[in-house]
## 1
Amino acid sequence: MRSCKMPSGNEMPIFGIGTWRMGESRAKRRQELEAIKYALELDYPMIDTAEMYGDGGVEEIVGEALAGIRKRPFIVSKVYPHNASRNGTIAACERSLKRMKLERIDLYLLHWRGGVPLSETYEAFFRLREAGKIADFGVSNFDTDDMEEAATLDKGLTGTDQVLYCLSRRGPEYDLLPWLRQRSIPLMAYSPLDQGRLLSKPALKKLADGLGCTPAQLALAWVMAQPGIVTIPKSASRERVEENLGALDVTLTPQVAAELDRAFPPPKGKQPLEML
Ligand code: NAP
């Protein structure tokens, strides 16, 4: 499995499973746990979660899925902006560790920019890193101006910016992605299937048919074909968890890439960062 180097020198896999909208219904808990366990059986190398998801419930499901596994995946979690003060971030991280029954989170992110001064959050990130409770830290939903501010505080160690990016929402290509690439910071693309909305686009379907793959696999392969981008599609279905992993075997020809550019044009100017 390909990986991306973060500015700290640590590697992050280019592919993992997302978990938003899990942990919200008792009736679906078993299916969600099974989907994550199945992803781990299939050697998904990364899980993305957050204290927000299911109000901590998803981190508990992740903890259950991790019990007794032979190869620990790379774990990403996130702190709520309203918890992201100097002491609040540390307390939130400790709660996340407890729910997942882990000693360390591989990459810990500020979920989005809130009212707490960024300097406090970064101070907490450094303390957590020194204590070995997180290996790397980063941010989410930061546009270029927020990244500029983060760069004054992060000692060159922000590990990623996790943002909305997929074929139908290519805004970050204009300025954010080049900004990140210049500093060797991987972009983590969330909602790579636009939460399923992309999959009914006729152009995507036609090109996927031509390649002998599914629209979801082509949409994911397109994201991962680009250097410095990692992605985390969510599925709570065993079939789709397996299908999405198959994206790693899809080779994007230059001709298909050009046709995708025609159907889903790149941005021609600055677009404010979208958020879901
Ligand atoms: P997504 O991964 O683009 O799409 C997930 C949706 O697509 C689900 O409804 C899923 O349904 C469906 N799906 C998945 N694979 C499919 C396939 N092969 N064929 C058809 N449908 C499929 O959207 P997302 O969950 O918003 O984003 C991914 C992850 O990014 C999240 O789970 C979360 O971890 C992270 N995220 C972070 C932020 C942030 O602010 N940092 C925001 C949004 C998302 P089933 O489950 O029924 O398969």
## 2
Amino acid sequence: MLLNSDLENIKGVGKQKAKLLYKELKIKTIEDALNYFPFRYEDKTKTISISELKDYINSNISICGTINSVKIAGGNRLVAEIKDDTASVELVWFRGMSWIGKQLKPGITITAYGKPTSYNNKINITHPELNLYSNSENDTIAPVYKSTEVLARRFLNSKGIAKIQREIISIIKKNIADIPNTKEINKENAIHDNVSPDFKNTLNDNEYTSKNKIFIVENLPSYIIEKESLMDRQEAFLQIHCPSSLQKADEAIKRLKFEELFYLQIRINKGIRNSKKESREETLKTHEVIDENNSEIDKNLFHNKEDDDLQKGFIFKDRTLLDNFLSSELDFTLTNAQEIVIKEIYRNMSLGKHMNRLLQGDVGSGKTVIALMSILIAISNKYQATMMAPTEILAEQHYNTLKPILDNLGIKSSILTGSTKTRLRKDILAELEMGYIKVLFGTHSLIEDTVVFKNLGLAVIDEQHRFGVAQRSKLWKKNMHNINETNKQSIANNTKSQNYKTSIKENIHMLPPHILVMTATPIPRTLAMTAYGNLDISTLDEMPQGRKPIKTAWLKDSSRLKLFDFIKKQVNKGRQVYIVYPLIEESKVLDYKYLEDGYESIKRAFPDVPIGVLHGRMRSEDKDYEMDLFVKGKTKIMVATTVIEVGINIPNATLMVIESAERFGLSQLHQLRGRVGRGTEQSYCVLVSGYKLTKDSKERLATMVRTTDGFEIADSDLKLRGPGNMLGTQQSGLLELKIADIAKDECLVSKTRDIAKNILKNDPKLIKKENEVIKSYIKKLIEQGVDMTGIS
Ligand code: ADP
Ligand code: MG
């Protein structure tokens, strides 16, 4: 039997059960089973005295006592009274009465495990697990596994699964006893001469087999195990399924979490490729060509982001325009955080290392001016820059706020969106390719193939979580358009890296533009570190001076009159108000009805106030028109759908009303609220909800009232929704972890990240002897089809 043998080889499993386990839980092999971990333990070793039961209502405990009496009560239940030195208690069964009754005889001593409940001040334990013979295997720490209804019906409930695990573990234990030195081999991590030849042959499978025996091989270098005081791998698998104590179980969990997170970080930071996938994108092909290491496995394992020429970036040292801007154009004082971040960015861009940076900053923290300053650095160095936003409204806003400043500095800019007219588009594209236009703002339209830059030095992507990974990486490749076909051919033919280096010098445009992606922190720190492990991160952790925290209230539908009063007061003070309605994808018709009804009722309530409407179905000219009226303060109330969710900046707007707030996710609510509180006036957010709320939506709304801190909200969101839903679909697979939890195991996430980064820095190809074990485990992961190519 090997680790990858079918589970039906295990005693007590059989074809039927094996089939079910595969269908329900995707457990096919012995290894799959071993990797199916319990989610908690029941400590059956802890017995309490019966008089203490009242302190343990509804929690699992064991008691030990002598049976006093056994009787059928009320014709429908079996009641056994047991007593110890301190008190007595009744154990009750409604099912299986005759079977259990047969075994319970007054006078015998038993251990009962279960949950005491209190009914009419009387404590009893219903359907306890019994142990009629003390000190048997049942007096242990029992792992609890998730099962399904289908499995439970076929005796594969948690206990049934535990039994299979025990069987596997006992086989492993026996193997260890037979070949005592395997443990030593494990510790040494690698291939040693004292191992018999047929042993060696199977080492590649990451398991030691000798005469068909199962062993679990270490996958972490011994220096890490020692330094972090980790349990060794085989021991961890034994202990997680059959712990000798709760403490050992904890150690096993920690060890397995560690390895899971460690390999996650290795994958992220190294960009491991799946050797089975052939369809690769252009840039990666180039990487393959230049890979000096001709070993097939190395070529498949890594595209070396860290250490080859493509890691080099444009050197932008000239900062004249930036300094001009700071001295004559900037009309506020930068926050300390902004100063630090622009220094980080300048350093990065001026040193010739390719910038791939995530700028995190809560809504309103002032990311736009950072984008502008970065753009100025690129322009000073005679390169072009582009800034991409997820919506037309936002792209227009950026253009409208930044164009006057760029004009003053003598820099030509333009904007390209889906609604740019064909004639104008043609002109823009031509001027862009000639290099007349220095800064191009826009939406996704920017990534179309027809958009060709003369020399793109920087791409800024605002609200990056709105874009898919593929869209972003297309921007990154913009400069590739400039290599002509002959050059492409010659690069492809040059397998020798020296030639490649020469050709890259001739083709400076081969370098990718510096990249700055910006986000309003709906990404908790741990997630950012994990999903964006290969990005540098800059953080704006400070709000501009003079901002007052937004006051948030949560109203039920019926308090609408009070709300209208409040709206009137704000409008009378000269302020502006947003009223936002949800968009529910499944029922677009209904959505607009909500919006329409809302608009009508607001109109009736405020007959003298100019009101605007904005939603995604409007033609973009109409959107611009409405937006423009609101920006200029000609309309006072803006009734809208979530099209205004991201980025909109109108400092005079001081009240955000969110209708049916229970329908929004936390980060969306936070983004919406971020539309106000952008000036010096006190701002407010009112969440209006119905009465029937789920526990989660209550929690979301309460979180919004409690805090305005984007990080806290993001963490809370992560806990409510789980990491899989936090990012675009591309990344969710990455975060489906077996045992570790990105949100809860923050400490391990950052520790494994540091260790992994350090290893890859000092030994990028993992050729050092002590790191061989990592390399061979990665190989195994790839053989299993692990695909990490989508991470950016
Ligand atoms: P976000 O980070 O949400 O994109 P913006 O860049 O739109 O925020 O900035 C919000 C508002 O704050 C804008 O009106 C901007 O001009 C202003 N702002 C940015 N930085 C400062 C600062 N240091 N002092 C005062 N106001 C600032
Ligand atoms: Mg913004």
## 3
Amino acid sequence: MSFRFARRALIHPLALCGLALLLVSGIGPAVMAAQAPAYESTPAGAKAARFVDALLGKMTLEEKLGQMSQIPLNQKEDVTPDERILKGQVGSFLFVTDAKEIDRLQHLAVERGPHHIPLIFGFDVIHGFRTIYPVPLALAASWDPAEAERVESMAAREASAVGVRWTFAPMVDIARDARWGRMMEGAGEDPYLGSRMAEAEVRGFQGAEIGSPNHILACVKHFAGYGAAEGGRDYDSVDLSDEQLWNVYLPPFEAAVDAGAGTVMSAYMDLNDVPATGNKFLLQDVLRDKWKFDGFVVSDWDSVLNLTTHGFAAGPEDAAVRAVNAGVDMEMTSHVMRDNLAEAVKQGLVKESTIDEAVRRILMMKYRLGLFEHPYADLSRVDAEEGSAAQHEAAKEAAERTAVLLRNEGGLLPLRGVKSIAVIGPLADSKPDTMGSWSLAGNVADTVTVLAGIRNRFGATATISSTEGVEIERGQPSIFDSQFPSPDPAPTTEAEREAEFRHAIDLVKQADVSVLVLGEAQNMSGERASRLSLTLPGKQEQLLEAAVATGKPVVLVLLNARPLNITWASTHVPAILDAWYPGTEGGNAIAALLAGDANPGGKLPVTWPRSVGQAPIYYAHNLTQIPHARDAMYWDGSSAPLYPFGYGLSYASFRLSNLRLSAVSVKAGGSLAVSVDVKNTGAVAGDEVMQIYTHQRSGSASRPVRELKGFRRVSFAPGEEKTVTLTLNTKELGFWSSATHRWSIEPGTFDLWVGTDSTATDHATFNVLP
Ligand code: NOJ
């Protein structure tokens, strides 16, 4: 794959496939043209550029390389961080979250560092800072970009109060393989949903523009293709066709860049044999030349040095040269660029102008963030922001809006008139597991577990009993063990374990209803948390089956951030609520949902397999030789998903009718209004997510059987009926064709479905005209 190759393909004999191709623009949807970065053509941008260029003119090469270096505070080196600051050998720190320490280091840099250049403090503010919100996969399950924007904006408030001005988020990697633990950090399997979430999160972090008060700089990661790791093994190689790259994996990055993301992080792995951190095609040709990205690129942790580990660079010097020449501006944690690039410039391996460009991008971003004018955080904000009532309220609302109701036989939920509830399971009263992975600075103590939430909500009217029943732990240590060390298993002998199991089942027998809180501990999903199986870890399945065998009603509440094998539960447990890792207010939110104070309205952002053997599985597959036998592709079990993409129930029920399009034909580049009447036929208020899927019937290449092209979450009062109108922009129908090697909207007939998940049946057709 190369830029040259793609451009050569412009002369592909299109006539052969008998199609007129529209909106032709080389290798992707946007128009390629060399132009000045947009920001610099504004008066503020021109002023920033003058300031930065003057500053750059005064800096030595060593000082420039210092700006390109990011180090964690506790990194063991001969030179202390303070000395590095005084010598101008560092531009950024990561993982410093103490307000006073940030303030001290910033004073050192601004008052005594060369040229008084402020530092930029970065941290993984992934789903909250002190107050923890539902994990990103859950935010995608809200199918409400405004919710995701609100959450990241609240997270930015807390982080900026201490002086953290840069987050390494959003992660926009498409994930279609539930074995991959980092599925948790993104928006799931779909490029359209992923793009809407990516741009919303960027807006949430950064505000209206970079430098907005109480906001922070976003960093879109991991560029690019990381989610397609072979076998779902974290960090493993990625082999992606151009078609997959352009149509599936790149769109959320482009959306985030278009939304103004200030930084991008290069990925760890190799993409088609070229490590992403040394990949000029990605970092220069696509990101800067094509998408006009005007921010800076930071490597992932040690990923510059690791260009040698990949068998790509010959040694650390070569790694530094290759990374910077490919387009990396700042090196995270390893420091081969800082230590080798001066010599490389001397030897002519790297042009000094390349270094200047990198440093200029970094300084421009510091300037745009306002760091030169206001380098210090207003520490009086810390107490007011951290864990404020507004944060808790927003966290509860987010957890309520992200939960997905997977099953509710006989209307077991919401719970009514229960006099006793048994809250059972290893995750029922665990604060870290309610928060989820990547909550490194979160306030553990403030977290409300499911047990605590149920006590708060039902304690006055019902007796609440609780026990763990079984333990769960990882087979291998986690890289996050130092944050949340696994608790010592309480019952140590087999006899004690059996007694605990029996005790749990006794509580189930004694209660009117049981809530089993099962799933994965927080360190079982996230970075380096890939799995061989998707079963409920430990003996949770046995506990669940024994609880159901008592004949008493059981509600399964899942804490997780990947689909788990709940195939048995899906036909035997009457009510299943997927709460994901719901965060600080998770317990209160879950209790509100169980009580019916809130109504679940989330939808799955990933297809839910029946078995790990189905991975990778996604709804937007191509049609095959025997489409009618799609569900019987394995002789030893079904190949159908357990739950389709976009699926989720409500305590209300909805009826759709009268699907209509504003026209039967539309010119490429135009748009159609798609309307449907929706009625809440239930007795309670609720939300439904209207989803549009399309399929191109024929063309230069096969297109997926269905692709999401629009959605909206809408609230309805009981009995309310309204017309929901969504715009279908034909721009969304364009794709990169493996036959023509270009991006185009191809004229022809399209199917369209509207409904409440990816199996929607309300159907229409329309034609795209040349
Ligand atoms: C490595 C992870 O891959 C990346 O996502 C994260 O931002 C950095 N570490 C910093 O924590």
